């Protein structure tokens, strides 16, 4: 199975480049399964039901999120309306599985590509972030219930050490551990010894002429004077950051991981 994971899609610039470049990536890399982190699609902060379904209509199979998932109130209602039958488009939009259990939404999705079962797990780190449940132990609990060999984990975390540790902890038990959240792509993609593809941060899909997606003058000004300011998305030097994972659908092991950055 050929898996594409698209890094944090930031605002309209990120959505536009995904729409423009995704078909050729799928064609050139023979992609079977598409996963994207979409927690920043709504002007850089949160995701709305309309934007989630816009991404799903591009043939993205699963959308993961992170600490900004609740920034738009509409997504809460979206999850709650879908909770009755556990199906529909909202079921393919995830929030971290280690959030409190009574929160709306789901932290794992299981589906099929053809006859091949797969699963996507969304987790969030705890170092320098909110104190949620332990992502390591939540991963253990979920893996006991998942009936699939191909398993991709989005580890949405601040600390590189926490992401790397989870990669080693899950090595051989999942196909890939992909780091998100910092919006800065790292050059440490590799397949770990027991067959898990890993990268500390896949990077942001959005404007790179700012500061992690935000207009640079606003962020620089905040550092200079400490005054509150409303952040606005930058617009220039838009790039799509992603990784392509080649996974064995029978064993769940990764054969390779390749980093992409497209203008």
Provide the low-confidence segments as ranges.
none
> Residue share in helices?
25-40%
State the CATH class.
Alpha Beta
Could you tell me the strand content as a percent range? 25-35%
- CATH fold-level name: Purple Acid Phosphatase, chain A, domain 2
- Listing every helix as H and every strand as E from the N terminus to the C terminus, the arrangement reads EHEHEHEEHEHEEEEHEE
List how many beta strands DSSP finds: 12
CATH architecture: 4-Layer Sandwich
Layout of helices and strands, plus pairs?
Blueprint: E1 2-6, H1 11-29, E2 33-37, H2 49-56, E3 62-64, H3 73-82, E4 108-113, E5 116-124, H4 135-145, E6 150-156, H5 160-170, E7 176-180, E8 190-191, E9 197-199, E10 206-207, H6 216-225, E11 238-247, E12 254-262
Parallel strand pairs: 1-2, 2-3, 5-6, 6-7, 7-9
Antiparallel strand pairs: 1-11, 4-5, 8-9, 10-11, 11-12
Description of the structure:
With 263 residues, this protein is α/β, with parallel strands linked by helices. The protein has a single domain, classed as Purple Acid Phosphatase, chain A, domain 2. The chain has helices at 11-29, 49-56, 73-82, 135-145, 160-170, 216-225, and strands at residues 2-6, 33-37, 62-64, 108-113, 116-124, 150-156, 176-180, 190-191, 197-199, 206-207, 238-247, 254-262. Strands 1, 2, 3, 10, 11 and 12 form a 6-stranded mixed beta sheet that branches. Strand 6 (150-156), helix 5 and strand 7 (176-180) form a beta-alpha-beta unit. The longest helix has 19 residues, at 11-29. The protein is globular. The chain starts with a strand and ends with a strand. The mean pLDDT is 95.
